[in-house]
Amino acid sequence: MKGLLTCEALTKRYSGVTALNDVAATLRPGEVTALVGANGAGKTTFLDMLSGTVGPTAGTIVLDGRDITAASAWQRAELGMLRGFQDGELFPELTVRETLRVATFRTRRYSLAEALLRVGRRRRHDRASNAAIDDVAGRFGLTRWLETEIGELSLGMAKVVQLAAVAVASPSWVLLDEPAAGLARAEVDQLARRLRASADAAPEVGYLIVEHDASLVSIAADRVIVMAEGAVADDFRRGDDGFRDLLQRRTHAATGHSSATPRPEVTERPSEPSGEVAAAPAGVDARGIRVTYGKFEAVHGIDIRIEPATLSVLVGTNGAGKSSVLNAIVGIRPPSAGSVTLDGADVSRRPASELARRGLVLVPSGRGLMAELTVAETLRLTRPRTRHPDTPDPLELFPELGRRLGQRAGTMSGGEQQMVALARSIQLDPRYLLIDELSLGLSTAVVDRLVAALLELRDRGVGLLVVEQNAPLALGYSDHAFVMNGGRMAFDGPSAIASTRTDLFRPVFLDPDSDDDTP
Amino acid sequence: MTIRHRGTIRGTGYVAVVAVVMLVCALGARSQPYLATVIATFAVYAIVATGLDFVVGWLRQISVAPAAAMAVGAYAGQELVADHAFLAFVAAGGAGLLAGLVIGLPALRVSGFALAVYTLVLVLAVELVLGSVPYFGGTAGRAVVAGSLLGLDLADPEHLLLICLGLLALAILTYQLLRGSVVGISWRAVGQNARMATSLAVDPVRVRLRAFALSGLFAGVGGLLFAIVGGYLSPDQFTFGLSVQMLAMVVIGGRGHPLGASVGAALIVVYQQVLPTTNYNDIVIGLVLLLAAWFAPRGLAPVLQDVVLRGLRAMSAIAGRRRGADHVDLAGGGSR
User: Fold this and answer.
1) B333 and B253 in one domain?
2) Residue B97 and residue B105 in contact, taking contact as beta carbons nearer than 8 Å
3) How many domains does chain B have?
4) Among B267, B282, B297, residue at a domain's last position
5) d(Cα B145, Cα B130) in Å, to the nearest integer?
6) Which of A10, A511, B19, B166 stands 20 to 30 A from A363 (CA)?
């Protein structure tokens, strides 16, 4: 079959950790294949190796009967394998038209001399390119934006431009990494229908899409490959029972509860007795928080409260605005509107370093460790000169770190790195600890271990707010839950109640049973 | 349609601005050899800086080696320039191009600050080699005797000025033609996001080498002109300091703007000519730089362009009111 993309025994190891193990697959043009699985299952690694962004440790990749394992990323793109990246990344200071012009490079290029002398292919190709660009821009609704710089566009628009660029390049294979992430519900449906329509219109083009969003998969995909722990776990086609079951199962799994055990509905936010408000209650209060990036507003005015001695979680999908909220509260990226009070004192727009000194500490996503520093050096950064007797000793909380003091952080597993990051922040003696992505890519055993430490901190009176993508997991271990959706607060109440609210969660592919641990 | 329209007006606008400025320069310097030399120096700086912008503005890399490429070009052409001036310029351009390739090699592996350090080593090496190998005339340097090119006498400041301005016009034209072509756009794309450009079938290695080579070609020709304008050639003319000056021109004038390098070069030359006698000079220029960085982070050229366009629009609005509204859109480039 023409245009077949196959791989055999594809394996990728990163310093001892196997991200992808002996994967074999045959992908057919004319099909939309969705690649699903939990975070860390190896989906993006698989995509990276197919597109040539990352070289495999072992295995072969064959496109249309030709071994392309050794071909570089641009050579594969030249062969027609076009790839989009997760965060809609593009060229910030090029206009939309110029960006689409780059995409015409594959099919309508000309030499430096032709460019300078305006002879030969330049005129012909420029004319054809502009016609193709105008056509694609029309189809993607970008005509108005052609002369706008990419940096001025919202994330959603940038993602559309990326798709348009792929379309302009007339690909034979399209590889996309989470095209729906960060898009609003309506945009996801539109994207899914557009993908489906493109695939139906051009049966010679193949699509491989890493996606968490179940509805996009159910609308667009012909085939679903489920990955777990770096290997292919399941492979279903539309029409298979497995395909239907998978979509249904995921839809329910997202909440972690069956609707068979309804709980009594209570008021979502107990209103504060008005007499106590004036007494400046302890806690962190963020009110009316808005966060904007350029012209794009990511968070549309939300309230959030961190109580002392409470473990709260903030859940929502990619792009819901969770990290933006954390960064706004601690002052790393101040909000465009709204106020933050810390134990009654207004700390809006105070620098992050001051807030950290005053007891409001953030553990950033990705753990923010310096890979070259050892555990001991990392901990020395925040070690107080004299330890207050009440301050928790991080090595008491994580005794396993005591044996690893000489190890460099970059060589540790993801779980150990998260422990180091937590230990470093705990030394600052926080009264409020904010953690961006606690469980991302970690095994359940490790998460249990980390949660145990957080509960101990809570019992010592620390107020915690943990951002999680994995809602069922987060709701299982927390006292209080905030659920964000598209930059708005969808729920604010006890975690036990959030678990019963199936309506809150978009059906997503997050496997609560998954067990994997990548650094 | 209005957008396309504005694009062409902008393109021809640059040509008009460049032509007018050059005509004024050439006429203004008639029978004033000193002024002619000063303007020629400006043109030489602007040629090299325009070439450097391929690296700084498009690839977004820092190279402090343009002085090295200038030196290589100047030394390659200086023997020939008395009798075969045209060949001398070809040799200077070719040698500069090769020098650019060598400068660009580390850019395939490192970028940003590390690249700047590597290129710094190259500048020092070239200066050292030229100074210590007897064939090149040693540190004492030598006089440059220039012949004639295309019927113009290179020893005559006014003729030399015409050649310098002509080459600068050619440099800006090259820049502008490349900027609008898929070639130039792909170079800029590599500078802004190499990973994404790669996934659109652009080979970043080829792009980087070519941009550095073209930048070297401009520097090589500029280097030979620099020696002819000075009438003298010695290794200590091509110092690290000269490279930093070139970088400053590009950054202050406006990275990625066709006239940015020229605006920056004009500023530096004016500074060297008008202000060098006072003691507070460095403080004044430092303050100007600080203000420029604060108010025009993308450089002065885009700001000037904005002012000029606004002026033109206002003028055409007045003219339009006098003659009826038809002409407003044509001359002003659309109302926004």
Assistant:
1) no
2) no
3) 2
4) B297
5) 19
6) A511
The amino acid that residue B249 corresponds to is M
Which tens digits make up the pLDDT trace of B25-51? Answer: 777 777 777 888 888 899 999 999 999
**pLDDT of amino acid A511:** 41
Confidence bin at A426 (pLDDT 50/70/90): confident
Question: pTM for the complete prediction?
Answer: 0.69
What is the domain range of residue B309?
299-336
B305 and B249 in one domain? no
Q: How confident is the model at residue A318 (pLDDT cuts 50, 70, 90)?
A: low
Whether residue B186 lies within 8 A of chain A, CB to CB, comes out as yes
Reported ipTM: 0.77
In this prediction, residues A239-243 reach a mean pLDDT of 78
CA atoms of A309 and A460, how far apart (whole Å): 7
In this structure, how many other beta carbons lie within 10 angstroms of the beta carbon of residue A190?
14
Mean pLDDT, rounded, for A254-258: 40
Closest-approach residue (CA) in chain B for A105: B182
Helix, strand, or coil (residue A58): strand
| CB spacing of A118 vs B177 below 8 angstroms | yes
Most confident range (mean pLDDT) of A118-122, A174-178, A319-323, B16-20 is A174-178
Model confidence band, residue A184 (pLDDT cutoffs 50, 70, 90): low
Where do the H-state alpha helices sit in B29-65?
A: 33-53
Which residue among B183, B198, B200 sits closest to A112, beta carbon to beta carbon? B183
Which residue on chain A is closest to B210 by alpha carbon?
A112
Distances (CA, A) of B140 to A2, B71, B228: 70, 15, 17
Q: Which residues on chain B are in Cβ contact (under 8 Å) with A101? A: 182, 185
| B237 secondary structure, DSSP code | G
- What are φ and ψ of residue A396, in 5° steps? -75, -35
Of the candidates B3, B178, B189, which has its C-beta nearest A116's C-beta?
Answer: B178
Q: Assess A126–B contact: CB distance below 8 Å, yes or no.
A: yes
CB contact under 8 A, A105 and B184: no
Domain co-membership, B66 together with B36: yes
- The answer to whether A91 faces chain B, any CB pair under 8 Å, is yes
Over residues A239-249, the mean pLDDT reads 75
Same domain assignment for residues B292 and B304: no
Contact criterion met (CB below 8 Å) for A207 and A30:
no
* pLDDT per position as a tens digit, B149-192: 777 777 788 888 888 988 998 898 889 888 888 888 999 999 88
- Taking the CA of residue A132 and the nearest CA in chain B, the distance in Å comes to 14
Locate A23 and state its tokens: 């994967």
* Overall average pLDDT of the B225-229 stretch: 90
B178 and B310 together in one domain: no
What's the pLDDT score for residue B336?
34
Q: Are residues B200 and B313 in the same domain?
A: no
With an 8 Å Cβ cutoff, is A278 touching chain B? Answer: no
CA proximity to A414, closest of A517, A297, A296, A307 = A517
Q: Are residues B170 and B250 in the same domain?
A: yes
Looking at the structure, tell me whether residues B83 and B172 fall in a common domain: yes
